[in-house]
């Protein structure tokens, strides 16, 4: 981890920034960030102008990352983009409901999730329980084993698009302004905050 760590922004965000400009899109890049003597597992959001929009430092760390010297982050930033509000989580974050929920409470409409490996049912759960779109990206070639995919999950946990072969993309069009109705609760996402248990509202 120490050998490949770099500042954010830094050489890698500059590299991905050129790609973002070239293709006029946003890129989420997973990096090992060095901030002084401290290392973080970081997701960097880079905009179509090639500049760093913001970053998220992974909060939930598996044992091997702690042993490798990674420090956990402590907040859940959400960023305004030209299409909506974007939050990020990283790999092991998806095993726990708290990270996605914290992002949703902060207003995230889309959660970008670079992930090494995970049960895809957890991606479905994070999308469904928060009524957000989850966009997962993995380099694990595990589609035949029903392991994590590179895909786009909708508010109900269904996969709208999936990249099944190396070098392909998952692309779909969604309407973020459409109300997120749950059959028995009405606009579920609008009620999430007020319906939370009192001890969890702050």
Describe the structure.
With 202 residues, this protein is of the alpha+beta class. Helices cover 23% and strands 27% of the residues. The protein folds into two domains: 75 residues, no CATH class; 127 residues, Carbon-nitrogen hydrolase (Nitrilase/N-carbamoyl-D-aminoacid amidohydrolase, 4-Layer Sandwich), CATH 3.60.110.10. It has a six-stranded mixed β-sheet, with helices on one face. Strands 1-2-3 form a three-stranded antiparallel β-sheet. Helix 3 runs parallel beside helix 4. The longest helix is centred in the N-terminal third of the chain and has 13 residues. The chain is globular. It starts with 10 loop residues before the first helix and ends in a 7-residue tail after the last helix.
| Domains, number | 2
Number of helices: 5
Q: Choose one word for the global shape.
A: globular
Beta-strand portion reads: 25-35%
Q: Just name the CATH architecture of the largest domain.
A: 4-Layer Sandwich
Biggest β-sheet, characterized?
A: 6 strands, mixed
Q: What is the first-to-last residue Cα distance?
A: 35 Å
Order of helices and strands: HEEEHEEHEHEEEEEH
Radius of gyration: 17 Å
Helical residue percent? Answer: 10-25%
Poorly predicted spans: none
Mean pLDDT: 90
CATH superfamily of the largest domain: Carbon-nitrogen hydrolase
- CATH class of the largest domain equals Alpha Beta
Write the CATH fold name of the largest domain.
Nitrilase/N-carbamoyl-D-aminoacid amidohydrolase
Strand order of the largest sheet: 4-5-6-7-8-9
The class by helix and strand makeup works out as alpha+beta
Write down how many β-strands occur, each being a DSSP E stretch of 2 or more residues: 11
């Amino acid at each position: 981890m120490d050998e490949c760590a770099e500042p954010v922004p830094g050489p890698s965000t500059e590299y991905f920034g050129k790609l973002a400009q070239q293709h006029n899109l946003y890129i989420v890049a997973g990096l090992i960030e060095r901030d002084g003597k401290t290392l973080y597992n970081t997701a960097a959001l880079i905009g179509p102008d090639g500049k760093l929009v913001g970053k998220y430092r992974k909060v939930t760390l598996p044992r091997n990352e702690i042993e490798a010297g990674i420090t956990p982050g402590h907040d859940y930033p959400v960023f305004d983009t030209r299409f909506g509000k974007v939050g990020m989580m990283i790999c092991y974050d998806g095993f726990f409901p708290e990270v996605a929920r914290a992002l949703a409470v902060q207003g995230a409409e889309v959660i970008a999730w670079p992930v090494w490996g995970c049960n895809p049912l957890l991606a479905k759960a994070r999308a469904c329980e928060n009524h957000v779109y989850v966009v997962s990206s993995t380099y694990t070639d595990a589609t035949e084993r029903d392991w994590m995919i590179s895909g786009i999950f909708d508010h109900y946990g269904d996969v709208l698009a999936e990249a099944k072969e190396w070098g392909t993309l998952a692309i779909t069009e969604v309407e973020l302004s459409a109300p997120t109705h749950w059959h028995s609760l009405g606009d579920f996402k609008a009620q999430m905050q007020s319906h939370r248990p009192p001890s969890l509202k702050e």
